[in-house]
Design goal:
- By secondary structure, the chain is of the alpha/beta class.
- The chain is about 45% helix and about 15% strand.
- The strands form two sheets. It has an eight-stranded parallel beta barrel, surrounded by seven helices. A two-stranded antiparallel sheet has the order 5-6.
């Protein structure tokens, strides 16, 4: 099982940062490495620090940490991403993984001249992934496509390292699942409650012929005492009128996972501390607050470990823990051990 944190942003809408961005990156990467986690997701936003620069820095301050770089095809061509992986392999003797993102916000994409529709962006993502995979495999790529053209192009890579690079693709929408089935080593979803996720996400994916690895992106707040975990969750993610309005806007998002979570968050907004699922720990309050983009598991170590164990038993082998703070790494690791005892050896 591979575990990833999500690296902090340079600019946060809700945070008053007291430490430098470099210190926050270093602290989180080293804490994850000491906890035995595999690496961390480096988000990509047009207004943020370049994720390839961040990955290079993290390689210099860690020993085993693997960057999971979010790559936006509108911003980085596949040969540039592959060249980054080759350079990282040469400098640090480690692979990088790529989280291919199609682009969820139309307003943001239009700022860089990208006017493709949702499905067209996934068509481009498919083409992007094919080229990237060929280059990582050391192939000489000749490709004439709708979005990319290459004529006998190849890198001079470290094949024994680059063959360890993995391509992650989000697979919530029909278009996303189709692309994931063709190019992904790991398909990632923002999970609904387990039974819903198993019936409406996992089974359609497997029925479509997907044979790769499966990941989820989820938050987790757990402590010895479940009441303490809920107190931390409510304090860290206070709900507000602005957050609720943002959630309403997300119900019209082009992103299927964002739209589905927003609709579920609104429908489950009962004012109770937990949401009505079988485990009692699945919580969308952080999403409703506008301060997190993923569902959370909240409760005691045993409660959260049991809920995570259901996903692991169903085949999940990669978990990206969203919005984790340094104080959460130890508790999360403890709950994961319990979950692995249920779902994985």
């Amino acid at each position: 099982m591979d575990i990833y944190c999500v690296l902090p942003e340079a600019v946060g809408e809700f945070e008053d940062f007291r430490d430098s961005y470099r210190k926050r990156l270093t602290d989180m990467a080293l804490t994850a490495e000491r906890a035995g986690w595999s690496g961390g997701l480096i988000p990509t936003f047009l207004h943020e620090v370049d994720p390839f620069m961040v990955s290079s820095y993290l390689g210099a301050v860690t020993e085993r940490f693997i960057p999971l770089i979010a790559v936006q095809p509108a911003c980085t061509p596949p040969h540039a991403a592959a060249a980054c992986a080759s350079a990282y392999a040469m400098m640090y003797d480690r692979p990088v993984h790529f989280n291919l993102v199609a682009g969820a916000r139309d307003d943001e994409m239009r700022r860089v001249g990208d006017h493709l529709t949702h499905d067209e962006r996934y068509d481009r993502l498919h083409e992007y992934g094919r080229v990237l995979r060929g280059l990582l495999n050391g192939e000489t790529v000749t490709h004439q496509g709708t979005y990319y053209t290459y004529d006998k192009f190849a890198l001079a890579p470290r094949p024994e390292v680059l063959e360890q690079c993995k391509i992650f693709v989000a697979g919530s929408s029909t278009a996303g699942r189709q692309v994931a089935q063709r190019i992904a080593d790991v398909v990632v979803t923002h999970p609904k409650p387990f039974l819903d996720w198993r019936e409406n996400v996992l089974r359609p994916l497997l029925a479509g012929g997907y044979e790769g690895e499966i990941g989820i992106r989820i938050g987790m707040i757990c402590r010895e005492n479940g009441e303490e975990a809920w107190e931390i969750a409510r304090r860290r993610f206070p709900e507000s009128w602005i957050g609720r309005q943002e959630t309403l806007l997300k119900t019209r998002s082009q992103s299927v996972w964002s739209r589905d979570l927003a609709r579920m968050a609104i429908s489950q907004d009962t004012g109770l501390p937990t949401e009505p699922d079988s485990s009692g720990v699945y919580w969308l309050g952080a999403f409703r607050s506008g301060r997190a983009s993923a569902p959370f598991l909240v409760g005691s170590y045993a409660e959260v470990g049991n809920a995570l164990g259901e996903f692991l038993a169903a085949g999940v082998s990669h978990v990206v823990f969203a919005a984790a703070e340094l104080e959460d790494f130890g508790p999360i690791t403890r709950a994961v051990r319990m979950g692995r005892g249920i779902g994985q050896p």
